[in-house]
Amino acid sequence: MRILVLGGGGREHAIVTSLVASEHAPEVFCSPGNGGTAALATNVSITDADPAYIAEWVEVNKIDLVVIGPEAPLVVGTADMLAFDGVPVFGPKAAGAHIEGSKAFAKDLMERHAIPTGGYRVIYSEDEAAAYLSEAGAPIVVKADGLAAGKGVTVATSTEEALNAARAALDGYFGPAGETVVIEEFLEGPECSLLAFTDGETVLPMLAAQDHKRAFDGDEGPNTGGMGVYAPVPVVDKAQMAQMVAILEKTVAALHSENIPYSGVLYGGFILTADGPKVLEYNARFGDPETQVLLPLLKTDLLDVVLATAQGRLHEIELEWREDVAVSVVLASDGYPGSYTTGKVITGIEEASKIDGVTVYHAGTQLRPDGTLVTSGGRVLNVTAIAPTFAEARERAYRAVECVSFEGMQYRTDIGLRALMAAGEG
Ligand code: GLY
Question: Could you give the domains of the chain?
Fold first, then answer.
């Protein structure tokens, strides 16, 4: 079987790693891939903005399955184009990916189907924003409706700050993504991601995971794409897990009832409020860095799961998970999430990978023709460790981090600490 994986981050390196380990021994291509996928798959360069070009490449290269990692190719209809050509594809079509591509669509869907989420208003002008804010007060959250590379969210502590954020978005700061703005209730409680495989009928939840969005220890500093993650999440009890699963099932059923078949991963970003889990947002894909802890814990052959999902026979699959826990630490370039420089030589990955339970996933790395591995992005590496306890997983992960070096390397030192305390290991 010949598989094409679209994307080039740590998530895609984790996907490629699991696919290559499949007992079906597929041949894997990755576009654009990174320095890590280069060692396992053939990196190719196909523009992910053009579904027609991807479909043509897939046909010419006799690809049997396409796995779409990031949201951008999903929202522009890559899965639609491939499905039209009869190619099995893992990832929703554009109508389903709209659940991530438009926050207003997601909120309206939840309202129509009584899915628990915070109160909100969809805003098209500054006057509407001012009127709603005077009614709703602060703290409050302002979001650009469309995809804004994770930068379109402002948690405002005053209505003035919220109005400024709404005005900036409406004035074009995020381009077309901010032409519509969603202002929503600030929900209080721990954040938790629950991802599920679904073929539009069957919904198979993964383990709960917890991302660390802020740049610095203690959840200080600016928001990032994620600086580390762990799974499972000890603060999630059985009742909360069941409620989150029920919400994901209800969401898939809601889409189905509106003639939107949804297939791939449905990612629920939840806040565990005092009134139960509420949806903060949906993503239409695997999370990054959540995938870098979920896939190492998955015992079931990933290729069987993605193929069954793509072919609408997910009911045949039962997911099996290791008893272990996983912690992943993101190593980032100096200055990230602001501006940073690239091209820094990376050393020590081989030594880090020798530590029991450790896998180093590449995100922003590039293998130069002379064999030198250099940084090529903000988030550079994800050092994942699995172990029976969070204390051991953290010890392994941070011992591995000590082995790795590149100029300006920055990382959080508290990834998994909350889990360790909540699990009673502290
Ligand atoms: N971990 C956040 C995301 O994947 O969007």
Answer: 2-93 (3.40.50.20), 125-179 (3.30.1490.20)
